[in-house]
Design brief:
nine-stranded mixed sheet; Alpha-Beta Plaits; N-utilizing Substance Protein B Homolog, Chain A; alpha/beta; Rossmann fold; binds S-adenosylmethionine; four-stranded antiparallel sheet; 433 residues; 3 domains
Length: 433
């Protein structure tokens, strides 16, 4: 029997939402079982939008089901969430969405539940006006965010929280970074247009190229030769702020998969050390360096414990792209909102402080350190940097502005949607000579 994309998506979504699996691992495991590329595209859309909207339509099901299915029948529960997502988000034709969802109960070997699935989806269709109004009444279910994150955003960014959560649910553009060493960005834009892509140069990022929709980048002209990399514009800001010059010693302290490390190397002839603690992620730095024809010293080690890897030669530039909640990149990683917990923030703060305090002594006098996260939460951002400033008499803030975003107590916050970029935080510090 031909595998059913909806049934595969339902089993996969149950694993993502109820058992902590990542969207990426589920997709990598399930997609090869679907020979037809259209089925694979449907699987991807169902898994991504199912994860993105889980917290809204899971809440709806809690009210539609007399007895919860989550524990006993997780795949059928996820299939129902996907039924609502097909009707409300993907806007598939009602009849087809309901019939195909009911049919998938057979592929899941639960034909006895076909009637229940049909009845729940039909009831939703009859009552959807009132039920949508109920879901829209609360910010968390309106935007399918966990309660703790909706509350944290309302505390940290009261004026922007609604717009941030709405941006987390919009399709982001595909952003590329033209490889400065490979050729001219305008020539690459022209080649992409010749290949039928609606590509354009980013209005203020020197290397940025914007395409309105995601596509298979390995088929774009120049991919194999390393003419570009995929990188959101918010992350491309890092190289401007690090401002590395030829001949300098640069440390990228949290480097995998190497996006920012490669950008630094494309911009200047620096001696770059790429440090990464996770031995499974580190090889991805090597792959990216090779494709872009760049070289760096790669170390698997702990940024919080320099004694185990540092050669005692100070760095002129240090980039700390710290491990964080990833609360700024929910639009690109829709499963993150299902996996993060409020308690993670304090634990991440401990790691962020540990890394920043351990690396400050490695910065040369007059050198520059950039602290970055893809978090929106002040506890992971300005609170961490403010503490370092209080502890280190030789640390001073380098002020800067970006064309979009918000000034923070220290540094700058890009919120999702500001300039159609991901959310990122940056602070730039200098060591007094
Ligand atoms: C936000 S990601 C870095 C993304 C990367 N800079 C890029 O642009 O492609 C953070 C990385 O820090 C690594 N990491 C976490 N704790 C670390 C530590 N104590 N020392 C070194 N790396 C660490 C994580 O494994 C993760 O790969």
């Amino acid at each position: 029997m031909k595998p059913d994309a909806r049934a595969l998506a339902a089993s996969g979504l149950a694993e993502i939402a109820l058992r902590g699996a990542s969207l990426r691992e589920v997709m990598e495991r399930s997609a090869p079982r679907l020979p037809d590329p259209r089925d694979r595209a449907l699987l991807m859309a169902l898994l991504s939008e199912g994860a993105r909207w889980w917290l809204r339509y899971d809440a709806a099901l809690d009210e539609l089901l007399a007895r919860p299915l989550k524990r006993k029948e997780p795949a059928i529960h996820a299939l129902l969430v996907l039924g609502l997502v097909q009707l409300e988000v993907l806007e598939l034709e009602d009849y087809a969405a309901v019939a195909a969802t009911v049919e998938a109960t057979r592929a899941l070997k639960r034909p006895a539940l076909a009637g229940l699935v049909n009845a729940v989806l039909r009831r939703w269709q009859r009552e959807r006006g009132d039920r949508l109004a109920g879901l829209d009444a609360q910010p968390a279910t309106r935007h399918a965010h966990p309660d703790w994150l909706a509350a944290a955003l309302a505390t940290d960014w009261p004026a922007q929280a609604e717009a941030v959560m709405a941006a987390d649910n919009r399709e982001p553009p595909l952003m590329l970074r033209a490889n400065h060493r490979h050729g001219d960005r305008d020539a690459l834009v022209a080649a992409l247009r010749d290949a039928g892509q609606a590509a354009g140069a980013h209005p203020w990022l020197a290397d940025g190229i914007v395409l309105p929709h995601s596509t298979d980048v390995t088929r774009l002209p120049g991919f194999a030769e390393g003419a570009f990399a995929v990188q959101d514009g918010a992350a491309q800001v890092a190289a401007d702020l690090v401002d590395a010059r030829d001949g300098q010693r640069v440390l990228d302290a949290c480097a995998a998969p190497g996006g920012k490390a490669c950008h630094l190397l494309e911009r200047a002839g620096v001696e770059l050390t790429a440090l990464e603690m996770d031995g499974h992620r580190a090889p991805r730095i090597r792959q990216n360096l090779e494709r872009l024809q760049l070289s760096a010293k790669l170390i698997v080690g702990d940024a919080g414990d320099p004694s185990s890897w540092w050669d005692n030669r100070p760095f002129d530039r240090i980039l700390i792209d710290a491990p964080c909640s990833a609360s700024g990149v929910l639009r690109r990683r829709p499963d993150v909102r299902l996996h993060r917990r409020a308690r993670d923030i304090a634990a991440l703060g401990v790691q962020q402080r540990r890394i920043l305090h351990a690396l400050w002594p490695l910065l040369a006098p007059g050198g520059r350190l950039v602290y970055a996260t893809c978090s929106l939460l002040r506890a992971e951002n300005e609170a961490v940097v403010t503490e370092l400033l209080a502890a280190q008499a030789d640390a001073e803030v380098v002020p800067f502005d970006l064309p979009v975003g918000q000034r923070a107590a220290v540094g700058w916050q890009l919120l999702p949607g500001d300039g159609d970029l991901d959310g990122m935080y940056y602070a730039v510090l200098r060591k007094r000579p």
